[in-house]
Amino acid sequence: MKRDLVKKVAPYLSAVIIFLAITVVYFSPIFEGKQLRQHDIKMWKGMQKEVADFRAETGEEALWTNSMFGGMPAWQISVHYSKSFVRYFDKYITLTLPRPTDLVFLYFLGFFVLLLVLGVDVWVSIIGAIAFALSSYFFIILGAGHITKAHAIGYMAPVLAGIIWTFRGEYLKGAVLTAMALGAEIMSNHLQITYYLLILVLIYGFYELYENFKNKTMGHFFKATGILVIAAILAVGVNFTILWGTYEYGKHTMRGEPELTKEKEVKTSGLDKDYITAWSYGLGETWSLLIPDVKGGASGYIGNIPAVKKADPAYQKVIAQQNSYWGDQPMTSGPVYVGAIVMFFFLLGMFILKDKLKWPLLIAGILSVLLSWGKNWMPFTDLFIDYFPGYNKFRTVSMILVVAELIIPVIAFMAVNAIVKNPGIISKKINLKFVSVSAFYLSLILTAGVTFLFWLTPTTFFNFFSQFELQQFNQLKQSNNPAQITTFMNNLESVRIAIFKADAIRSFLFIAGAGVMVWLYSAKKVNKAIFLLVLGVMILADLYPVNKRYLNDDNYVRKSKMEVPFQKTAADNYILKDTDPDFRVLDVTKNVFNDASTSYFHKSIGGYHGAKLQRYQDLIDYHLNKEIDQVRNVFKNQSAGMIDKVLSQQQVLNMLNTKYVIYNPAANPLLNRFAYGNAWFVNSVKWVENADEEIDALDENDLKTTAIIDKRFKDKVEKEHFSVGSSDVIKLTSYAPNHLVYDFKSTNDQMVVFSEVYYDDGWTAYVDGEEFPIVRANYILRAMMVPAGNHKIEFKYNPKEWVIGEKIAIISTLILMLGVIAGIVIAIQQARRKKAETEQ
Fold it and tell me: Rounded to two decimals, what is the model's pTM?
């Protein structure tokens, strides 16, 4: 009995050991005390610093931070939610490995489970998991620090596995797997990846509907669908707080509808179309699925590589400093490469597999490729942006290739499994118009043959300059020696062709090698063990080195450097001595609105986040960019004597209480004595009809004495003119990101403008404990009428999404836990019953 158990368990234990070994070897520096240098993680540490510090000091969640973009909700920055069962499941299913090695292990394990559910041989499933996990994009995003994206990708396969399992009649197992995997998928908090997974699931769902309708088994379809709906409800329930919070927040961000009518021509009900499609995969670039450096790989210098020797020695040094990527994306960290061998088996699978599941999977894969083209096939992209709900909320359309990266290896290793079971299947004839050819040879022609043809005549099929580069070179020819520019271009092209040809012949050789192994196995020259062992080694040899091009030892730094990603400068130290608890800092030496280093130490005018409040983005576009440029020009032109005059004119920076300007990190910052402070009294209110008038009025009025307010708030403002006395005071006395306290003293009723971002979902104002209405002033700030007297004014942030959402999440977690326990008990009872029946 024990021997039988060991025999059954051994392949699965071997899988875990193999996955773990590859992960540990690849990321060995992490186990030696180093960490990946990840740009987005570094930025995240800056943006979440205030929230994390508040949590450490109080044990509570702030839910709001003032460290970026004047102030914003923290839903998509850093919020710790209820300790749910799914979180512990996620932690232990990945063996509590250090990040990001836990995510790579998840890649392996999740895909392994999917192939097992599809009935693939366990050893074939191990190889398939290696092929899927080592897809280049999955490692490239780890190097960039896109952790939530990687986390969500890791759960795509097990979610699909649970759904397929359920539709194949394993209702209990399928429901448990779906609920747990989908709960973890949503918990990963990358809604764009989850959205793409939903598209795949919908396509598969329509396939199941068609098949069950055709086979007159609609009862089974409705039963399976009902079970999956319950599983999905529980998965959503355990993540209810973040989903609700993100949904409400999304309405007010760049992903919501614009309020400025002048923007509606270029905006959808979500993001701008140009913003959505900025990162569109090129049509020719799609060949990277088969040939990694089809467009040169990652953005950056070519470097002193062997291919540079193809150039004239006079040009080699300058060519080594040219961009190694010649595709049309703004930049890239590397290609989407699924593997030459995997592509061969994918194509072979489409010819030989009898399982109809290949068709919905193929449709989903093709759709992902077409949508990844974005602006390169705008009519198709427009169709989805305009009519497919939610599609316009996401940018970087090339990301949808994660669906193809899932689909291609699924079909490929279903094909390998079919060959293992029936080697003769490769001789299946495919009838073309003029000839009948075996599926095996046709697949070789369409993969190895194509790569060889590309190697033989690369310029017939590809251009080795991006459109942007061609424009630059044409401009240079007008102001320089055209013949010299043409010679340089020819040399650069020869180097890029050499880079391309090296990978084209590389893919050819791997496919040819795989083809030889398939032929040997079908001819019974090698057995199953040798066939699979050699195939696994070849796939590892194909994918592993490609990943090392983009994520290698150069990506690691000392652990301490990532734990404290930003070091204080002289300017930071000077500002940190200021005892005022709430003011903003502008660092003109940084890319203000795409950098979170300032947010690590201070409350910043800028920051780093893909979902800013739409009104703040409007402020950036129409006022802040212009004002910051004017401040920068003072320092650039070395006209320091003009700085006071310039700062006094920057009303938006001043109303945002920009107290310090960093112009040189090594020097003391500039104190802006024109900043309006935490709050101020105004003499009058100017009413405007709409957002367009409101944002324009910021240039037309003295914001120190006038509050610009939309007429929608008129019922909350009793007066339009106010008398401000010399002894009237409004002062911030206590600061926390979610709780502000002010002392107010005045003999008259006053209109107070607060240098705090207006956000009506969660913020409540109190005067001496009594709730008072908040109005929006100056397009982005809070304001309120305060009666005469001495008062304590408080702003508290306690959104309903947190108060109610966490209760729903806890209840859903308890139900899910009970469901899993019940599922395990029932499964054990069924196993015992089956064993008893067998013994009888």
Answer: 0.93
